[in-house]
Design brief:
alpha/beta; Spo0b-associated Gtp-binding Protein, Chain: A; Rossmann fold; 2 domains; six-stranded mixed β-sheet; five-stranded mixed β-sheet; 8 helices; 19% helix
Length: 397
């Protein structure tokens, strides 16, 4: 099934019903006075977070959502029926934004008019591909069963019975119902998990998640096997559970959306703890030290708050050659980092990861598991000079 974590939608609340102009006319009561009822209120378009919904694919294929209008008032002081609200279920962790005019489809009104007429609209709200961080969110549905009224229905109009007075015994005045709210919105899913797995493609993130949880992410020997975030639930005993998010592999320049970096990075924004999964054996021809430096730089450039999260380093593929030597070099380079040597493929030495998950569940947002990601300096060279990784890259460029 298609996975959609960012979508654009159009919402239209129901209009209020009109008030009625009516007079009581019965046998022996020829002038009974006004008895026009009020119109019903229009229905709302409501977004509701649902634990059984894991992505926004339903809105991808049905982006126009509207609620029913209120019924008109009737005689005998009968109030019009309120319009039914439309409830749209979205995943927990969905952010809602109102789109500015420049981001809305140019022919949105024509498309809506076509849908009203029973025709298939030409505009379908696909994934927005926008950097929504420049917008202020309207709401954050971070808790289960949370509701947000996206578009409020219009109030019903008043019947002529409201306008009678001692000087106007037969008023014919009524009011029409208010127009329901409408607009274009962007919805973005940010996965909620206790721990997020961060690493390069083929570092072993999916293999690790499959070993510690009941999740079954796709595992293969080529990069970008994982294309969508996968959340696994790890049972820690004593009725404690931790959720772990496996996001697709990052590459250099992910903060600039290279390799769909924004599509992946948004899913670790809510994670309380980060686990950097590194190929310590360098089996893909990579250097673990350089990989860790690049990953932390990408996180910092995308969202500076990510560098303040508790973290640990998973030194994966320790069963391969040169892994021990690279591990020693890495620990000398980052002496303060909490390193967990293991082999995810064989399932050996996973106790350290389980301890991190246990601490994450116990502490949540309190004391960190380790110091925040340090702004490490490069070791002193022959000239005794030191440089940050960003300065070194700018000098090479």
């Amino acid at each position: 099934m298609k996975f959609v974590d960012q979508v654009r939608m159009y919402g239209k609340a129901g209009d209020g019903g009109n008030g009625c102009s009516s007079f009581r006319r019965e046998k022996y009561v020829p002038r009974g006075g006004p008895n026009g009822g009020d119109g019903g209120d229009g229905g709302n378009v409501i977004l509701k977070s649902d634990v059984h919904t894991d992505n926004l694919v339903a809105l991808y294929f049905e982006p126009h959502r509207r609620a029913r209008r209120g019924a008109h008032g009737m005689g005998k002081d009968m109030h019009g029926k309120n319009g039914a609200s439309t409830i749209v279920k979205v995943p927990v962790g969905t952010l809602i934004y109102r789109l500015p005019d420049e981001f809305r489809p140019r022919d949105a009104n024509e498309a809506w008019a076509a849908e009203e007429a029973g025709e298939v609209p030409e505009v379908r709200a696909k994934k927005t591909h926008l950097d929504l961080r420049i917008l202020e969110p309207l709401a954050d549905l971070a808790e289960p069963e949370a509701e947000f009224i996206l578009c409020a229905g219009g109030k019903g109009g008043k019947g002529n019975t409201h306008f009678k007075s001692s000087t106007n015994r037969a008023p014919r005045r009524t009011t029409d119902g208010d127009t329901g709210e409408d607009g274009w919105f962007a919805l973005e899913l940010q996965t909620i998990a206790d721990v997020g797995l961060v690493g390069y493609p083929n570092a072993g993130k999916s293999t690790l998640l499959g070993k510690i949880s009941a999740a079954h992410p796709k595992v293969a020997s080529y990069p970008f096997t994982t294309l969508n975030p996968v959340v696994g639930v790890v049972n820690l005993g004593a009725y404690a559970r931790a959720t772990v998010a496996d996001i697709p592999g990052l590459i250099e320049g992910a903060h600039d959306n290279r390799g769909l970096g924004h599509e992946f990075l948004r899913h670790i924004v809510r994670c309380k703890v980060l686990l950097f999964v590194l190929d310590m054996a360098g089996s893909e021809g990579r250097d673990p030290v350089s990989d860790f430096q690049t990953l932390r730089t990408e996180l910092k450039l995308y969202d500076p708050t990510l560098t303040t999260r508790p973290y640990a380093v998973v030194a994966n593929k320790m069963d391969l050659e040169s892994a021990e030597e690279n591990l020693q070099v890495f620990q000398n380079r980052f002496p303060k980092a909490r390193v967990l040597p293991l082999s995810a493929a064989s399932g050996k030495a996973l106790e350290g990861v389980m301890e991190v998950l246990t601490d994450a569940v116990q502490l949540r947002t309190s004391a960190p598991l380790a110091e925040s990601i340090p702004e490490e300096k490069e070791p002193e060279g022959p000239t005794g000079e030191t440089q940050d990784i960003e300065e070194e890259r700018s000098a090479e460029a």
